[in-house]
Input
Amino acid sequence: MRIVEVLRQAQGMLKEISDTPALDARVLLKEVLLKDDGYLLANRDEELDSDSLERFFEMIRARAEGKPVAYILGYKEFMGFAFRVNEDTLIPRPDTEIAVEKAVEVIREKKCRKILDLCSGSGAIGLSIAKILEFTNVTLSDINKGAILVSEENAEKLGVRDRVNFIVSDLFQKIDDQYDLIISNPPYISQEDMETLSVSVKDYEPHLALYGGIRGLDFYKTIAMQARQHLTDHGILIFEIGYDQSQEVENMLKENGFKNVITINDLSGHHRVVSGELIPET
Output
């Protein structure tokens, strides 16, 4: 079969499961052929060998069953870096880059050195910070040991292993240290929204990293209450949030002594990040 025919057939197989069937097909074919979009376009009539066809349609069948492209590939790009992912970790989303960009801005401004990425998953947030800012020392903490093992691999791959610590912990349970900045993308999907998730998310991504309680706010409440004990004076707490959670999360921070509380929108104009500063009482 020719490249153009292969892509057309794959797109048809994916149209019921994917919102981007043509893109998914191209991404997977590029992985099989180790080529780029320009090659696929310029060589539309090239005949694929049987091994490439078999491998490609094996991937397409997995995608047609709902498996996310990132899990099929085994990696996802985030902040310009390729992070290994598997079904122990959430797939990093582009919107989460807003939280990293805010953290990098604050760390540079306030010269923060000790950073905690709580509910770290694949390590995309904390390891991106460590890679971008070489003066930082970052701790990654997650309740899932499998996720921590993945993040250790990612730290090695990014060349930041010597500046990163790893803790398997249920939130702050096994964390004793204090940090200049804590950043967290905790589980925040509500019970109602869990029912509406796509097959690719609901059947493949870890529920442990998705479900945030009946209203999706359980982890924010606990972290906001306990973070005070783990932040230095004028320490910063940064959350990624759901699009409709900003007011309640802002209130939680204010109720727990945080000042300068702000919400930042993502590129779509949705509320995405809430941050606050722990200013000691005088």
